[in-house]
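Bumping my old thread because nobody answered last time. Still need a sequence for this structure:
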């Protein structure tokens, strides 16, 4: 018996480590948190039954590691422990009753589903930001953390402080960013943890990451008696905190019920509640186990699951060429909607789950976004699914994508890619063409009416043919043609990001316009110029990969031909800029803004003042930079400005200039 248990324990350890690596290091979890917790629970109960067989370095004793070898390491001054957790309200209440005497209060916080990030402030200045890592040692990602707007570079008082918090992303901002990137990220959490460890902080800066404080460790005794008063103090210091709630253990169950209803309405991912003893003296008395504090526990929410059968595994090619599998399901109700499709992410995921046609599966809405197949209840009798080697649309041999688990169709003429590019162009968030939803575009594409985006603008010539088609009465043809005509009035800004060019989404478009590239010709010229990649990177907000994508695509004959046809069709290719009422005192000047400011927080506000008055803003000082606005703590840029003879402007002078 013992040897059987031992074998199972070793197997579980290996399995848990593998998933920890997938989760924390590769940001590509293959199983849900619930499934992961089950593995841990099983191992932990086997260890209780067979204490002699437990490994000294069992994963039940350590928190998962997110260490990445390419970042400098830092030993946390206070270990970042994980919390004991439960999925049952009764257990949580029992914990509270056992831990606190009736009079003590429990502090309840959202368990935000993001990535832990500890900030170290010295004399009020952000000295370093460190990931959780092993809990003892983390990765130093300070430069990336500085790009997060909700993290202040300076506190309102010059004190020493260590503060633990969570980096996260709002659902709407995640959706917008993900769509721009071709929907390659499974959920906000993976994108956040990947972004914190990005090699280039300029890329991190483009991602809509937020941060919120949860736990403070003041260096000097603050004489505060409760955690809730510590949180108030953090807020005073300029750090973001969420509202928290305090209840007695007798009121806990009711409060939990209330909050678990409220969670569905939140705009950020929350996977449970954190319950803590509010009284700091009692905390000191309770202390820690080897893995977690005794004064806190996490109550995790069960993800809503539904059971159904896989009717078919479909594979389709998106507009970027990425081949994505999804399960077509026997329709089932889940979280208030009927679900007929669930994502299977990629080939690795299918293999890991062992899902087949005919399998009975459980599906969930992960992070409340896209339904996903979570587990296979019964594999069924069908043959194993083998991921296609060829594009389901054009038959081209698939190639591996930049993300290792991805397969891409390399064919530029691939029907499915072309069709989905047209679907994208017509969608509400892009050109918003009435009557041209996915279904109609597909019909027009298959019948040969529209093979490219410019073909849309030639549809009018074939009005009679269209009207004769089944399901396309004269009324619907009229709606489509009017919609197409109206789209010619869409502003250039929208036209540019509707083209579906890689990395050129709404936010990059706005940055380019802001920088004075007001027309497609401005942009093409910028992409053709010598040293174009470097020059584009100087624009604040444009990272290296975006700069490369712009230059490559706007020198591509295919792209240029499409732009020409659309221009001839009458689309807008330059932006009408409303004249500012302000005097254009910075016209012709190029400004760089560095350091931190009293009156401009974040410093983008100072940049906006420059742009409103006709100036350009760049992110580095070169000989072309005419002015450097230097705030507190301006470092190497100040030296460079001195070297190039750039005019250096202080905050005070700047305020005088703009009146
Ligand atoms: Zn293809």
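Sorry it took so long. Here it is:
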């Amino acid at each position: 018996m013992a040897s059987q248990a031992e074998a199972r324990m070793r197997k579980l350890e290996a399995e848990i480590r593998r998933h920890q690596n997938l989760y924390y290091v590769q940001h590509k979890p293959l199983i849900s948190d619930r499934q992961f917790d089950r593995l841990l629970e099983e191992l932990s109960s086997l260890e209780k039954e067979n204490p002699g067989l437990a490994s000294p370095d069992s994963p039940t004793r350590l928190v998962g590691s997110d260490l990445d070898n390419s970042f400098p390491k830092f030993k946390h001054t206070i270990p970042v422990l994980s919390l004991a957790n439960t999925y049952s309200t009764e257990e949580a209440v029992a914990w509270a009753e056992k831990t606190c005497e009736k009079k003590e209060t429990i502090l309840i916080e959202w368990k935000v589903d993001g990535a832990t990030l500890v900030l170290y402030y010295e004399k009020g200045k952000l000295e370093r930001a460190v990931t959780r890592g092993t809990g003892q040692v983390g990765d130093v990602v300070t430069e990336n953390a500085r790009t997060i707007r909700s993290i202040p570079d300076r506190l309102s008082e010059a004190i020493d402080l260590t503060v633990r918090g969570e980096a996260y992303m709002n659902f709407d901002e995640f959706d917008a960013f993900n769509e721009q990137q071709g929907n390659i990220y499974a959920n906000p959490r993976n994108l956040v943890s990947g972004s914190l460890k990005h090699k280039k902080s300029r890329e991190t800066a483009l991602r809509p990451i937020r941060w919120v404080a949860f736990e403070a460790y003041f260096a000097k005794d603050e004489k505060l008696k409760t955690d809730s008063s510590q949180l108030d103090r953090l807020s005073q210091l300029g750090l973001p905190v969420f509202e928290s709630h305090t209840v007695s253990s007798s009121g806990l169950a009711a409060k939990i019920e209330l909050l678990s209803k409220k969670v569905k309405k939140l705009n950020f991912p929350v996977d449970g509640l954190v319950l803590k003893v509010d009284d700091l003296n009692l905390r000191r008395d309770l202390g820690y186990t080897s893995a977690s504090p005794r004064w806190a526990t996490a109550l995790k929410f069960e993800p809503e699951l539904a059971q159904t059968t896989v009717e078919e595994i479909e594979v389709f090619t998106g507009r970027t060429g990425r081949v994505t599998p999804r399960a077509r399901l026997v329709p089932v109700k889940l979280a208030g909607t009927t679900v007929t499709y669930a994502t299977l992410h990629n080939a690795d995921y299918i293999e890991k789950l062992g899902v087949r046609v005919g399998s009975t599966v459980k599906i969930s809405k992960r992070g409340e976004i896209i339904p996903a197949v979570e587990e296979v209840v019964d594999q069924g009798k069908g043959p194993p699914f083998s991921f296609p080697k060829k594009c389901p649309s054009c038959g081209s041999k698939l190639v591996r994508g930049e993300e290792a688990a991805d397969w891409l169709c390399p064919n530029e003429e691939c029907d499915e890619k072309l069709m989905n590019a047209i679907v994208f162009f017509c969608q509400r968030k892009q050109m918003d063409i009435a009557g041209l939803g996915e279904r109609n575009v597909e019909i027009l594409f298959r019948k040969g009416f529209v093979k490219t985006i410019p073909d849309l603008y030639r549809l009018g010539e074939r009005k009679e043919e269209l009207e004769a088609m089944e399901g396309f009465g004269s009324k619907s043809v009229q709606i489509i043609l009017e919609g197409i005509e109206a789209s010619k009035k869409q502003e250039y800004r929208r036209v540019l990001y509707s083209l579906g060019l890689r990395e050129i989404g709404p936010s990059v478009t706005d940055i380019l316009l802001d920088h004075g590239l007001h027309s497609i010709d401005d942009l093409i010229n910028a992409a053709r110029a010598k040293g174009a990649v470097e020059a584009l990177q100087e624009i604040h907000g444009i990272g290296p990969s975006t700069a490369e994508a712009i230059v490559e695509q706007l020198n591509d004959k295919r792209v240029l031909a499409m732009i020409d046809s659309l221009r001839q069709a009458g689309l807008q290719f330059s932006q009408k800029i409303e004249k500012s009422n302000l005097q254009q005192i910075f016209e012709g000047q190029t400004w760089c803004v560095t350091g931190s400011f009293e009156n401009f927080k974040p410093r983008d506000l100072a940049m906006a003042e420059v742009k409103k008055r006709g100036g350009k803003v760049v992110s580095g000082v070169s000989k072309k930079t005419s002015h450097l606005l230097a705030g507190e703590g301006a470092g190497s840029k100040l030296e460079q400005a001195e070297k190039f003879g750039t005019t250096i402007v202080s905050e005070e002078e700047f305020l005088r200039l703009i009146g």
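The chain has a mean pLDDT of 87. Let me know if any region looks off to you.
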